[in-house]
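Structure (tokenized):
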């Protein structure tokens, strides 16, 4: 990772975290808020899709395994929407399989993080995909 990716200020970046685990949502929200991000959370894909239009996040983290609408389906719906397809989507999963990573790429996700993720992984992913206007 370059120095830019570890040092870039990400305060004010709008991040959405979609996960059915309250623990994961709270952990990610806490880490991101400490870094100055504006955080919106959703418990599943349906809830998230209703919120994306209102919040226009700069980056979205989505869990793969969720009830009703899983992470792959949620990502595919975001990426097939003309207005939202440019938003970077980062998949979160407790599984670290090649198949899961490939499937994430197929539906258009930019990156795949394995849970439990570290603060550096979370913030590094945001810095990698959110380009600040200099």
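Design, position by position:
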């Amino acid at each position: 990772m370059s120095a830019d990716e570890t040092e870039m200020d990400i305060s004010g970046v709008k991040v959405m975290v979609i996960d059915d685990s309250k623990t994961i949502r709270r952990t990610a929200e806490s880490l991101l808020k400490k870094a100055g991000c504006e955080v919106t959370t959703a418990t599943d894909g349906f809830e998230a899709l209703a919120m994306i239009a209102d919040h226009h996040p700069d980056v979205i983290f989505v869990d793969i395994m969720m009830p009703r609408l899983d992470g792959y389906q949620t990502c595919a719906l975001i990426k097939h929407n003309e207005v939202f397809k440019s938003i970077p989507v980062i998949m979160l999963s407790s599984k670290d399989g090649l198949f899961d990573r490939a499937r994430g790429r197929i539906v258009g996700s930019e990156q795949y993080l394995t849970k439990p993720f570290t603060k550096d992984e979370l913030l590094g992913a945001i810095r990698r995909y959110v380009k600040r206007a200099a």
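Reviewer-requested clarification: The mean pLDDT is 91. The first strand starts at residue 14 and ends at 18.
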